[in-house]
Amino acid sequence: MAAKTHFWKSKTLHEMSRDEWESLCDGCGRCCLQKLEDEDTGNVFYTDVVCQYFDEDKCSCTVYKDRHKHVPACIWLQPDDLSQIDWLPGTCAYKLVYEGNDLPEWHPLISGTKETVHAAQISIKNKVISELLVPEEDWEDHIIDNL
Q1: Residue 53: inside a domain, yes or no?
Q2: 4 domain residue, yes or no
Q3: Under the phi-then-psi rule, with left for phi > 0, alpha for psi from -120 to 50, and beta for the rest, what region is 57?
């Protein structure tokens, strides 16, 4: 019996169905963190401040389907964006597949459960504070370096 070929190994990002594309997201929530960019260097720094629409218990967006109505600048990641976005964390499946790498063992498509993302300490679950509680001028005080 032949081994099953995983779609992310047999298809390009452009060939994936919408459901396949969405399933690449491991649900870590890191893209929901507020980021600061150094204007001089272009370096991007993550903070532990998260979008107000992030549900920390579920580690997901509460307005995902309509997120652009609520947060116009929220990313709507597409395959062509991956060559231009350098702030995605190294663990991001979209970035990994784009770069020709395989998914880690804790990824839900490998493990079969979303809980492995949290067990591997990849997600931001229970590690963040809502942007509603931190004025933007104080975000610099919330820069983290452990992503």
Answers
A1: yes
A2: no
A3: alpha
